[in-house]
């Protein structure tokens, strides 16, 4: 863990160092992934089954007819879920849906004074593929966060893929898919699943866009199929930045720093405070909390390698630091968190006040937990309904409007050396 | 040019062939581009000047102090523009700005029945880089289409780069930059300009996102700096799809097909009609119009290699074909174009009726002319104000709200094996 103080002479350099730390180990899997995609494109179901048998350690009885998860399997999974977790998932689904309904954009058409009608309309994508990781990173909450905005957008076909290594699956993931209105579920994963979604096989019809997190193979496959289909962002390790003053509870702050750190050894937790007392108290509280945390090995490595406590003179000094870090998650525990939040330009999601731990937002707050990482909140947004819709602009001129605008279009077409453009207008005006 | 008829036995295969035609020659410039980017990152201004001297054939007198275009140069350029083109640019800028003002999104905050306050706010990107090609593809209209939405979004710093090979520049491009409110202009291009925008040099401060069209080097550089900065779509060759019935004027339709074809030998113009008479008449009209078109060589090659006329039984049969083609531009010249447009899901921009040639939309209609190509209208939208803003979600729980939601978050955290998440909630509730 790094301690910085804005009063130190080398602070600018030290903070720049914090900004430029590389937290991702980029595995070079691109050649392997290229081969797998080509295999699925040429081999279809047979190739998909073959890769899945090999990578997910399945036997000869796994065949093309095993790919799709049946409604009976979904029902059985729901029956196998603990009641409290299922109730919690239902509450989460209801709140996520309510929040995202407010994001559905409106269409717009208007006719101006010269008779030009123009505007736009939003339409849902015709189909979306949702990648869900298997094993320990198989989070039912992420199924809700990815699938619900797609359904709210009006996507008629939401296809989920989830690997089930050795046949193992998390029943809560299937329950979440059912709650979120997923249309089809296939038990495949890795680059082979991404290839199947992008190009289609005999069993899996192709989709228009692929979303959802995955490992290095999945990320490389998504980059490679981009263009053939749309993709969401490529998510990096998770981050939290907490702004807290001397009134904050150090144990609560430490708990929030560790909730982030427990995700991944490459996660990053940063505290910026104007109080050296809080800084010291949080540093101790983190050590105390680590002593009993089940995922302490992961959290300790993250905190040691990428954690930071930054002391500033005041929070006005913190604002430009926040904008440069552009954190995925920003918690503000100061006297007037709204006022401070209003000064910040770059953050994926903001959590206000001491009773809004980021974990509430991970599950049941309502806003999406798929958020821009690695400083990309400078130029991008968290997942939402707009990611599952696209806008078509519409233009209509009546003859009088064309007469009014035509000469300018002709002049610009000619000035750009595009005489054919000018002619397509002129021919309608007998010019 | 390919003629298809939906009544033919091999139509499905022929149409699938039309869909899968590869129109882009992908030059493998990735290694060269990687070297240039690394050069600018390590060498700054000196490397940028060096590459610019070499690629734009400039002499020793071109130095770091020559990089920025001065206000005097901009004033001189405006004075050198033909008055009719300048007036047309002003009209275009006014209309583009008015259209895009309607796209500025609203913020939203609400408190629900259990005391959770949530919503989002939109903020403009802090800075944007606009790439403008030099030479024949240097279009002042594209400067307006890229820069005006950024200014409407509220981006405080809009930086334009435009190569000026052998010192040559198009005065209308500088005039358009001035009209659109560009803040800084640098006379650099290619991968070296993209690198300077992404990483910064002594003279050019880095930006948060890079937009605008470019050649293979520029496209490869944009792909490579993605993540460090945001980028817009990578545009492919332009396309038009025209739906026209037997009442359409074949000379007008032909003029519109050629206005697209004259862009590039890889451009694509397609007519779908229910009238074999119109199909024949348009085919003849294209040949007649080509005889006098200045860019006939380009347009003829595009029409020959990628043009198509598709005859359908009726326009209901055409709708799924349109959705599969997902054209950048869709013109509808039928009896009730609105009704037909309402059935289409996938198109970048729609032009309704026989008095709305696509060229009007290229210049002065108001909607943006930067649109998704190569079937990407299935999952993406044209350029707009939202491309220059990002959304931050906001969540605030009061103590009662945390008590209401906390148990569900704790249950989900534990079910996902993330005990630290559960603890960050439980510690605040003394659970």
TrEMBL record, chains A, B:
Gene3D superfamilies attached to this UniProt entry: 1.20.5.1300, Nitrogenase molybdenum iron protein domain
Cofactor(s) of this protein: Zn(2+)
Organism lineage string: Bacteria, Pseudomonadati, Pseudomonadota, Alphaproteobacteria, Hyphomicrobiales
Name used for this protein in its record: Histidinol dehydrogenase
Cellular component, GO, one term: cytosol
Binding of Zn(2+), residues: 260, 263, 362, 421
Family: Belongs to the histidinol dehydrogenase family.
Reactions performed catalytically: L-histidinol + 2 NAD(+) + H2O = L-histidine + 2 NADH + 3 H(+)
SUPFAM superfamilies per UniProt: ALDH-like
Keyword annotations: Amino-acid biosynthesis, Histidine biosynthesis, Metal-binding, NAD, Oxidoreductase, Plasmid, Zinc
Residues reported to bind substrate: 238, 260, 263, 329, 362, 416, 421
Name of the top EC class for this enzyme: oxidoreductase
Residue sites binding NAD(+) per the record: 131, 192, 215
Cofactor descriptive note: Binds 1 zinc ion per subunit.
InterPro entries per UniProt: Ald_DH/histidinol_DH, Histidinol_DH_CS, Histidinol_DH_monofunct, Hstdl_DH
Pfam families cross-referenced by the UniProt entry: Histidinol_dh (PF00815)
Catalytic site positions: 328 (proton acceptor), 329 (proton acceptor)
Annotated source species: Methylobacterium bullatum
Protein EC: 1.1.1.23
Pathway linked to the protein: Amino-acid biosynthesis; L-histidine biosynthesis; L-histidine from 5-phospho-alpha-D-ribose 1-diphosphate: step 9/9
